[in-house]
Amino acid sequence: MRDVRIDRRLFLRGVGGATAGLAAATALSACGTGTSRSASTGTGGKDSKSVVVRDSGGSFGAALQKAIYTPFTRETGIGV
């Protein structure tokens, strides 16, 4: 049997590569295809005048509503 020695640099490079691959796979799987959302909600299409945004709610959600969502709706006519 061959004596395989892994030095610190090789170990860190392998762990870093595995971590980067796992992070990329997680990020890409979160993107999805986008086909299930419009099909399941029935609101997709050219005549849709609303945008769905997910926030955490509470005081932070209220601040987002006041600072971003309401002005956006006022300027564009697209509901948030």
From TrEMBL:
It comes from the Bacteria. InterPro entries: TAT_signal (IPR006311). This is ABC transporter substrate-binding protein. It comes from Streptomyces europaeiscabiei.
